[in-house]
Amino acid sequence: MIANINQQDSASTLLNDYLNLIKSKGFSGETDCSYATRLVTATDNSIYQNVPQAVIYPKNNKDIQTALHSAQQDPFLSLTFGPRGGGTGTNGQSLTPGIVIDLSRHMREIIEINVEENWVKVQAGVIKDQLNDYLRPFGFFFAPDLSTSNRATIGGMVNTDASGQGSLVYGKTSDHVLGLKTYLVDGTELNTRKISIDKAQLLAQQEGNTSAVYQQVIDSCHSNRSLILEKFPRLNRFLTGYDLENVFDDSLEHFDLSRIITGSEGSLGVVTEAKLNITPIAPYKTLINIKYDSFDSALRNSPFLVSAKATSVETVDSKVLNLAKEDIVWHSVSDLITSVPGIEMQGLNMVEFNGETENEMDDKISSLCRKLDQLIENKQAGVIGYQLINDKADILKIYAMRKKAVGLLGNTKGKQKPLAFAEDTAVPPENLADFIVEFRALLDSHDLNYGMFGHVDAGVLHVRPALDMSDPLQEKLLRKISDQVVALTAKYRGLMWGEHGKGYRSEYGPEFFGETLFTELRKIKAVFDKNNRLNPGKICTPIESTDELVSVDSQKRSWFDKTIDIKVRDSFENAMNCNGNGLCFNYDESSPMCPSYKVTKDRRHSPKGRASLIREWLRLQEKADVNILDVEKQLINKENDITWWERFLNTRAKNKGEYDFSHEVKESMDECLACKACTTACPIKVDVPTFRSRFLNLYHSKYNRPFKDYLVGSIEVTAPYLSKCAGIINPIVNTKPVAYMIKKIFGYVDTPTLSVPSVVNSINHKYRFDEDTLSSLTEKEKENSVFIVQDPFTSFYEAELVTSFIDLVVALGKNPILLPFKPNGKAQHVKGFLKEFKGAAKNTSQFLNSLTKHNIPMIGLDASLVMVYRDEYKTVLGEQRGDFEVSLAHEWLNKQDWGIISLSETKEDKEFTLLSHCTETTALSNASKVWQDIFSKLGLSLTTPTTGCCGMAGTYGHEVQNQENSRALYEMSWKGQVEKSKDAILLSTGFSCRSQVKRYEGKKPKHPIEYIAQNIV
């Protein structure tokens, strides 16, 4: 029996009083002190964990001012705050034990653009890719390019002074900040921009809360100017947080306080708006992928590439490339990074050129290519080949692979995972190769594996050593390596943090700033935040404060994870391995990755959030001496030991408000659409539907299920019988009184209509499965046959698709054999009926395995069902699953001879648009291209726009409580594409997707099979 987990950690009276106070003063955003929300916000993309007291989500500047100003009065002076953006930091910058101010949920407005003066003003929660999507039609982009650009916020970029690809040309975020709106700890509004030194001194003399700030920064930076210039290395990635050098320009005639705030990691104030310089998009772009026989060759060749006047030079090693080859992302770039015959590629430099004219580009590219040809011919510099890419879409594919490399490293097999803790060192580019040789020797001396990638043009290489943080000895090794890397970086006159900020590495600040300048940092911190209430422990503490800095030895996520039994951790590795990369926060609405997060903007409803919650739930069960694996085994293999009466009492207690952390986990799981996009789109392959079904199975062993779960779980049992009476049932179900009753009693709306006639009654008897007839077939006849595996959606609600496929199979000269319907079990798996699912999987596997002796291909029509055979069956049955294989229709059709098919009309003047099922899109990345190839063989042109989730996802879109989210998801991604295709013939591969379009548009798209079959001559 699972334990009742009273982990509410209810907010203190002080905190509750504070939250009530700001609401009474007009705070219009949300406040949340639930354990689930605090837990999800306790981690970022680092190895650390720090559970905050609460999270507040301001909607505007007034909310932030209200929140800060209200905390300036007794008894709230002990409260601390930490601003948070996308939570993509690798060093715990946004983690705080106090109150998180999350600007990412609401403050996403692009306020103003001025194309004449090349600037844009945005709120802090605007996402980098969101901003560039907005700027693109104007011909501009915001230059600093991060690997996390589809979820990193501008506020986060400002606070870490982020940079990335192309920084040699475009610089860091601070090079593009024209002005900031910041709120100090007391709620005072501070607007900063570049001004004359005279005006800055005038502001320092005026009365007000900000005068001391101006005075101290002027004194610290002017008085120590010589020391600052001497101390800080002359690098593109100059020392950030706080940037003492660039407050003044070279002439000392201008002063910009924004330079101190940029890179301050929220320790000086809460940045809410930024005015940014924007860069014109160069009309010409070329990428050259240069291949090397070793990674060392790639590094040593980089200065030569930089001298070729490249915009950027990015590099990845063979470990990153090999991980990419195992991921879905490789399908999009495999033809752009081809192997070199007879030579193994161990390194890759991606060299980008941008230009205003074609001649300018030709000169630079031709010159470099000639030199590369000479190097290859003479077998010099380790260059073994190169490829030119001019298509901008293809260039974006390459960079998408490079960006995903950050997450892919986390998917390394084994307990040791590459970790970010000393991986953004910056040294002079000409020293990089020698530096890396020593860095590698350092790691090799500890027998560690590691991956490398980065920006060799700027001397920044991301090196991630693989450690098992559950091993106490390896945790200590993290400290040792950190210290050694600091010493090595200093030896090469570099910086410990060239890109990703300080965070929990702040303890090394004194070593890089020196005692005198670090004291000046503390003075600056004191005038901004004398009581150390803003992101305490980061960068520095106020002068005369006895507070300590955070440390690389601070509380880590692994401290909690390793208290879970190792067998449980291994069993739930699809949740335990989540490293916080946060790709599931992807801003792109056309990406299928995690629709529930996209529509709610609640991070509890993301794969990362759900993985965090399930890990904590497992830890707390362990703490309560519950052996989850034993309980789960008992539930799957025999009846629940808890009586119906005990479940009734538990459920009644729940309904009366009795707390159990399990309810918070359940609430998060309920929002999951079970679309499985996370299982392939996530670089770590966090598989929410699998651990969600396991959790639901366990949860409902203690608490009653809603009746609607039983209705869904039994659909494959009842549908065959209902279909026999479809002519009677359909009219009844569609009446208003019955529809109302179904809505009120079962919680479902828009009940789908059963097919009339049914599949069995609509196909020729000779195509039906018959064991005797099958046994009498010759080997030649079997080679020419196809098994059609039924699923409940198409067989009972869309029989016309099954008959269309049979017609198409016949037209292709094959013999279709419709197998008897066998429950697939997906609905049971989605709802957590794992005992019943195992039974269904076992029975169906036995039947399908019994047919493999005939060597006849098995074809299914719906991706979500077919993928269950491939994934969930293997998980629940193991070797008992057998070796049967069910292909999707397009996989089989692509191998057929389409020359024998003629259509009644080619529709050359018609356009065809295919909107794909999200499960199919993520699990089978080339599915759309296959359909394009098939249509091309028929003389038809098919477009396949990228879409996210349609919002139906099985029964999700039919459930009453999901109606608002289901429609929002449809309108977010699908509606626009449907409207664009009004002059085209609209097709869709997903049953759920076709049902959703019909529900909102009144017209159902056809499956491509159905269209082809109906137009065969």
Automatic annotation (TrEMBL):
Molecular function via GO: (R)-2-hydroxyglutarate dehydrogenase activity; 4 iron, 4 sulfur cluster binding; D-lactate dehydrogenase (cytochrome) activity; D-lactate dehydrogenase (NAD+) activity; FAD binding; metal ion binding
EC number: 1.1.99.39
Residue span(s) of domain FAD-binding PCMH-type: 48-281
UniProt domain 4Fe-4S ferredoxin-type: residue ranges: 663-694
Coiled-coil stretches: none
Keywords, ordered alphabetically: 4Fe-4S, FAD, Flavoprotein, Iron, Iron-sulfur, Metal-binding, Oxidoreductase
Pfam families found in the cross-reference section: FAD-oxidase_C, FAD_binding_4, Fer4_8
Name of this chain's protein: D-2-hydroxyglutarate dehydrogenase
Record organism: Pseudoalteromonas citrea
